[in-house]
Amino acid sequence: MSGGPGGAPTDAREPAPEDGDDATRDEHLPVDFEVFFTAHRASLLTRAVMLCGNRQDAEDAVQDAFLAALEHWGRISGYEQPDAWVSLVMRRKLWRALRLRLRAKRAALDVALPSQASPDETAQARRVLTAMAALPPRQRMVLVMYSLYAMTHQEIADELNIAASTARGNLRKGRENLRRMLGLGPDTDPLNEVPLVGTVGPLPGDGLAAALSATESWLGAALAEDGQARRQARADLAGLRREGTHRT
What we know:
Elements: H1 31-52, H2 55-71, H3 73-76, H4 82-99, H5 119-133, H6 137-147, H7 153-160, H8 164-182, H9 207-224, H10 227-247
Helix pairs in contact: 1-2, 1-4, 1-6, 1-9, 2-4, 2-10, 5-9, 6-8, 7-8
């Protein structure tokens, strides 16, 4: 499964480590978890914002996913790709939250500009993010999972508990709507089981894929430079961990 975590469960339910987690609880975050958190938080938050179109919702989902990993870190840390497990938890939390809403929130980015970004890059990224926030939640989720996670239609369908044909239809509609809002031309080639961005980079001539990839890079740089938010998130995780320890 190209979008599933290596070494972690990938069925339709919330992934959960086996019983018997041997993580040692104390008043601080484990050193290796601190390293993991610092290395992956910005990229996971970037994907979360693009998935849901709202920074606060993205922050909440990422924080919950990291907390789930922290609670079972003795086992999660042994996975081949623990960041993929956290990403899966984050996506499922966002999907459940979006399904409860009648309307998706508009983008609430509240991010500082990346220090190396040009005015044109910033303007384009904001156009893309604003347009993505206006998409129906399912179209946006499917579009990001296919385009940025390089997941197949069937993998998306399995994770969201929808039919593969529904995933394919939402991908096509999402691309059409986003292209229209960004003033790009229509798709000229049928959508096959080939990632539009993912690990292979934008396909030649696909302006929408290139725009998504550039926007992810812009947003990732902005969030990576937000040291204050990263420190606050780490402190919040430590506080939640202490609360959990005191309740047990």
